[in-house]
Design a protein that fits this description.
Length: 257
């Protein structure tokens, strides 16, 4: 009988010139410009979009201050949220900073398995969330070794995407909902304003892989909170040494520009 392992997922964030917020999630809204007064003009249009109305904005101030106070405010905003196609993206809402920011949190980082058996696959899940503001997107990587025993034996990582096979050593993950070998995991959840995808190597239900350093998730543009679930699969063979197995992975989220 093999004893299951407990995996602690640490978090680390590297950036490309963005502000970081660790341990908490920030949902930031970008704005379309607000005009201090009503403006009349010919319809705004290009080959990709057109404004049907001849007025924009409501009321607002971007910098009102004295020696004792400072404020910024808007009024009459008619829209909130994101509008996009293949050629442009607009975020609408209240006045906020133009500084880019990236927020990342592991929401379930302790992965515990039951006892391993050569005849039965073992599964578990963990989860993390990402939001990014005014960047062109982000990528998520995973680093670390498969679980190993106190005696020094390391379970075999799945270098190529494959299905679960009992009786041979396998350690793999994906980021989608699975029905094989059991029903577990979940597809990326972008929420109401989020954007997020599993990388192709980790985006097929019932197919698993683990290569340290791989990209596992990404977003091609600014995003609200997106939630990802990592599905873990372990198979062992009858020759796998017994003992307690443990390991850990580090997840790195990087803003892209």
């Amino acid at each position: 009988m093999l004893v299951g392992w407990k995996n602690s997922i640490d978090t680390a964030v590297v950036t490309a010139g963005v502000k970081l917020l660790l341990g908490s999630l920030v949902i930031a809204l970008c704005i379309a410009g607000c005009l201090a007064s009503v403006t009349f003009a010919d319809p705004l249009k290009s080959s990709h979009y057109q404004f049907q109305e001849t007025t924009l904005g409501g009321i607002g101030t971007t910098d009102t201050h004295s020696t004792s106070y400072q404020t910024a405010g808007t009024g009459g905003i008619l829209g909130l949220g994101s509008s996009a196609d293949a050629d442009f993206q607009i975020e609408a809402g209240g006045t906020t900073t133009a500084d880019p920011a990236l927020a990342f949190a592991v929401t379930n980082g302790n992965v515990s398995f039951s006892n391993f058996s050569p005849s039965t696959p073992t599964t578990a899940t963990s989860s993390f969330q990402v939001s990014n503001y005014t960047s062109y997107g982000y990528v998520v990587q995973i680093f670390g070794s498969p679980p190993s025993s106190i005696g020094g034996h390391t379970l075999a990582a799945m270098a190529s995407a494959a299905t679960s096979q009992t009786g041979i050593e396998q350690f793999g993950i994906n980021l989608v909902a699975n029905t094989s070998p059991v029903s577990f995991g979940a597809n990326p959840d972008p929420g109401q304003f989020g954007v997020g995808n599993a990388e192709p190597n980790y985006a097929t239900t019932g197919s698993y892989r683990y290569v340290s350093g791989d990209l596992i998730a990404y977003a091609p543009k600014s995003s609200g909170v997106a939630t990802y679930t990592i599905s873990y699969l372990i198979n062992v063979s009858s020759l796998t040494p017994g003992g307690k197995y443990s390991g850990g992975q580090t997840i790195i989220c990087t803003g892209t520009y």
